[in-house]
Design brief:
By secondary structure, the chain is α/β, with parallel strands linked by helices. The protein is 47% helix and 15% strand. The chain has helices spanning 6-14, 16-24, 35-54, 65-78, 127-144, 169-183, 202-211, 223-231, 237-241, 245-248, 256-271, 329-342, 354-367, 371-378, 384-391, 401-407, 419-432, 435-460; strands spanning 4-5, 58-59, 82-84, 88-90, 93-95, 99-103, 113-119, 150-154, 160-164, 275-276, 287-295, 302-310, 316-322, 347-351, 381-383, 392-393. Bound molecules: iron/sulfur cluster. Residues 15, 17-18, 21, 190-191, 193, 195-196, 199, 201-202, 205 line the site of iron/sulfur cluster.
């Protein structure tokens, strides 16, 4: 029987197909890991080492899994206060939490027992962290005869989040059954999701999904909703394109408006032709701004407010309001507000999707915003993503800025750049002091602002709308 690890459970949570491909597909078919994930791994190790150096512990020496598990068990029997990188073995389950900490709850070990503690590079617990911690709790139950009531996650800022393990055990047990079935060969089909963009199997899966006209190519269709549609007999894009929207809306989780949009989206994808629903009416103001924010991984600190300013004569000026250190966020905000205050009253501020409006509000809460500027900023914001979705259907799999602006013919200077890379560049700037990383982040942000302008130009212009 193959070992089942916390790593398997994490893969399963992200995408069952990625676990299937990891276990059964030729590994030559996957591409290189996304650099951001490698960086995250590296940061995780650094963070873990920093936490370990601040907590007295007994480490488990390197070696084969069985001997590390045996050494861990000996330390547990002796009642060691804290064990670093213990190996918990109850075949087929194997778990290596970052720490075990002794508690006063009696167990088969004696008048004490252990609870798991895991270090994470995140500002709040993610679902896969809870599953992992629950998995370690379950393993401890098998080893010491008692499942600990709680475990801790140590987060990015060093704070501890205590998790009630019993709440997550049913999910852990179900995940173990699923992992075992996939290990035994149960095939899992790809399903397009937010995880695909950073997955090394993306190209492999896209080819399969396109060949099969897979429903997940419909923007925003979750795995659950896809399953419900499949169950109701809708298996391909053609099935959806030919469907009666009223009948489609009776499928669980599909409302009337979603059904209508799905039929249109499927037709557009099959024909590879955009569809216009309405010509958007965008205001004509003295100055147009195209605004894009960049944030730091983990902390959600905004480190860059980029603005492409376009005057009535079409003259452009890009400005980057930059917090070179996270603690400079307030000063950056003040500088941006000075700039905003000096602009004419007649402005429109375009952005793409709700990240910008959400974080502008958070910046205002954190650092303040006077009433006149609040009105000037928030009353003039226009979300082009929302305008685009209301006015057109495009032959794209995602309505994210990258996908949409690229479809419109725009390209980013740095190949492979994305929001994750922007976070990576900022972290690299902070850790190395090399300004080339800041420059890359600013260039990427400028391209995002220009990409946003491209969307607005196409939406407000005649080119793509003419027959
Ligand atoms: S590309 Fe998407 S569907 Fe394919 S394995 Fe990765 S996450 Fe899953």
């Amino acid at each position: 029987m193959q070992a089942i690890t916390a790593h398997h459970l994490t893969r399963l949570t992200h995408c069952p197909c990625s676990l299937y491909l990891h276990l059964h597909a030729p590994q030559s078919e996957k591409s290189e890991p996304h650099p951001f994930l490698l960086h995250l791994q590296e940061l995780g190790l650094i963070h873990e080492a920093a936490i370990a150096s601040s907590l007295p512990h007994i480490p488990i020496p390197d070696g084969p899994i069985p001997s590390r598990a045996q050494f861990t068990h000996q330390l547990m029997m002796r009642g060691a206060e804290r064990i670093y990188q213990p190996v918990l073995l109850a075949p087929p389950l194997v778990g290596i939490p970052d720490f075990l900490e002794r508690t006063d709850t009696p167990s088969t070990l004696g008048p004490h027992s252990y609870r798991p503690v895991d270090v994470k590079i995140a500002s709040s617990p993610h679902p896969e962290h809870l599953l992992q911690l629950g998995f370690y709790g379950l393993l401890l139950g098998r080893i010491q005869g008692v499942i600990p009531e709680t475990g801790d996650l140590i987060l990015m800022d060093g704070s501890r989040e205590t998790i009630l393990l019993h709440n997550h055990l049913p999910q852990v047990e179900e995940a173990i059954v699923q992992v075992a079935a996939i290990q035994a060969g149960r095939e899992e089909k790809p399903c397009l999701s937010a995880h695909c963009a950073m997955c090394p199997w993306e190209q492999h899966c896209l080819e399969i999904m396109k060949a099969k006209q897979d429903l997940s190519l419909l923007n925003g269709l979750s795995r659950g909703r896809k399953g419900a549609l499949n169950g109701a007999g809708y298996r391909t894009l053609s099935d959806i394109a030919q469907a009666n929207p009223e009948a489609l809306s009776e499928v669980r989780g599909v409302g009337e408006r979603t059904a209508q949009r799905m039929v249109l989206q499927a037709e557009v994808l099959l024909q590879n032709e955009p569809r216009i629903l309405a010509i958007p009416e965008l205001p004509r103001k003295e100055v147009e701004l195209y605004l894009d924010l960049e944030c730091q991984q983990g902390t959600q600190v905004i480190y860059l407010i980029g603005v492409l300013e376009v005057g009535q004569n079409g003259a452009e000026r890009y400005q980057a309001f930059l917090a070179e250190r996270p603690e400079d966020e307030g000063a950056m905000w003040a500088e941006f507000l000075d700039y905003l205050g000096a602009l004419p009253e007649e402005i429109t501020i375009y952005h793409y999707h709700n990240f910008e409006s959400t974080h502008l509000r958070k910046l205002a809460e954190r650092h303040g915003l006077g009433e006149p500027l609040r009105v000037k900023l928030f009353d003039n914001l226009i979300d082009l993503h929302s305008v685009l979705k209301q006015s057109t259907v495009l032959p794209v799999y995602s309505y994210g800025l990258k996908s949409v602006a690229k479809w419109m013919g725009f390209s980013w200077r740095e190949n492979g750049s994305d929001a994750a890379m922007s976070m990576l560049w900022f972290d690299l700037w902070l850790s190395t002091g090399d300004r080339k990383y800041l420059k890359l982040a600013v260039e990427y942000n400028e391209d995002d602002c220009r990409g946003t302008r491209k969307v607005k130009t196409e939406l407000g212009g005649a080119s793509m709308w003419s027959e």
